[in-house]
C-alpha cells in the first residue's frame, strides 16, 4: 500500500482523523505505540481503547514502525503535546509537510508545538490543524470545520488542503500558526474552569461569564505572543473554546467537573487513560503569562485547583472578589 498521508498517534483524535481521511477510500498509515493496538486496528478494524464507537475504514493500515512514516509527503502529528518532540525526532523526517494536531504547550520549555516541531524536524514545512473537533463526531462523518494555519503560506495551503479536506471536513486557510496553536492550548485550560463551574452547580450565567472572561485571557496572551485577533476569534480560538466549555464530551471539561464536585486532581487524572491536555498546559501557561506580565486570573485559578491549593469553592470566591475593572481586553 502507498499512503499519501500518515497519522502519528492512535488516540481518539489520531484515529478519528485517519477515519475521516480514509472516508473516500484513500490510503492512510496510522502509527500507534502499542503492538496490541496495531493488531486490533488491522484485524478487527476497531480501536476499543480510545475510539470504541468507530468501525475503521479498510484503507487504514496501522504500524508501530516510526521509520515507515519518514517518507510520506504529509504527516499529521497527533500525540499528546508532551510527547511530540520525542516521537517526531524518532521519525527522522527530512522534509515534507508536518501538520500539528496536538493542543498544548511543552512543560519545562514553554515551547509552542511549532517550535517543538521545527527543532525535531528542521527541514519540514509546518502547519497547524485546530478547531472545534470532538473526535467521535469527526469519526462519524458529522460536519466539522477547522483552521489550517500554514507556515508556508498559500503555496503550502494549495498542496495540503486537497489532502486534508473531505465533504464533511472543511479546513479554512490561515497563515497565523501562532494564533492557531495558542487558541487550542489555552481553551483546554479554560474548559477545566468551566467544568468546575458545572461541578459546583453555579449555573449557565456563570459559565457564559467564564467563557467571555476566559476569551479575554486568551486574547491578551495570544496578542502578546504575536497571534492575530481574527485567528483568536475564529474556529481555532473562540470556536473551540465554546465547544470545549459546553460539554462533558470534553475530557478537560469533565476533569474540571470532577474537581468542582470535590474530587482531588491526582485522583481525577489517575482515573483516565485519555489525556486532559489542560492539566499539563495550565502551569506552564501561567508561568509564561506571569513572566510576561499578562493577567490570566482564570488560568491561575485552575493551576491552584490542580495543585490542590484550595477547595474549588474558595478558588471561585477568590475570582469573584477581584477588584471591579473595565471589560476592555487589553487592560
Ligand atoms: N480527542 C479529541 O477530540 C481531540 C484531541 N485533540 C488533541 O489531540 C492530542 C491527542 O489526543 P487524543 O488523541 O484525544 O489522545 P487520547 O487521550 O485518546 O489517547 C492518548 C494517546 O496518548 C498516547 N501516548 C501515551 N503515552 C505516550 C508516549 N509516551 N508517547 C507517545 N504517545 C503516547 C497514547 O498511546 P498509547 O496507547 O501507546 O499509550 C494514546 O494514543 C491532544 O493534544 C489533544 O488535545 C485535538 C482535537 C480533538
Ligand atoms: O480539543 C477538543 C475539541 O476540539 C477535545 O477536547 P478535550 O481534549 O477536552 O476532550
UniProtKB/TrEMBL annotation:
Biological-process GO terms, alphabetical: carbohydrate metabolic process; glycerol-3-phosphate biosynthetic process; glycerol-3-phosphate catabolic process; glycerophospholipid metabolic process; phospholipid biosynthetic process
This protein's UniProt keywords: Cytoplasm, Lipid biosynthesis, Lipid metabolism, NAD, NADP, Nucleotide-binding, Oxidoreductase, Phospholipid biosynthesis, Phospholipid metabolism
GO MF term list: glycerol-3-phosphate dehydrogenase [NAD(P)+] activity; NAD binding
EC number: 1.1.1.94
Gene3D superfamilies named among the record's database cross-references: N-(1-d-carboxylethyl)-l-norvaline Dehydrogenase, domain 2, NAD(P)-binding Rossmann-like Domain
Any one GO CC term of the record: cytosol
Main location: cytoplasm
Residues that bind NAD(+): 9-14, 83, 135, 251
Localization of this protein: Cytoplasm
Matching PROSITE patterns: NAD_G3PDH (PS00957)
Domain Glycerol-3-phosphate dehydrogenase NAD-dependent N-terminal: 5-151
PANTHER family (alphabetical): GLYCEROL-3-PHOSPHATE DEHYDROGENASE, GLYCEROL-3-PHOSPHATE DEHYDROGENASE [NAD(+)] 2, CHLOROPLASTIC
Stated role: Catalyzes the reduction of the glycolytic intermediate dihydroxyacetone phosphate (DHAP) to sn-glycerol 3-phosphate (G3P), the key precursor for phospholipid synthesis.
Protein name: Glycerol-3-phosphate dehydrogenase [NAD(P)+]
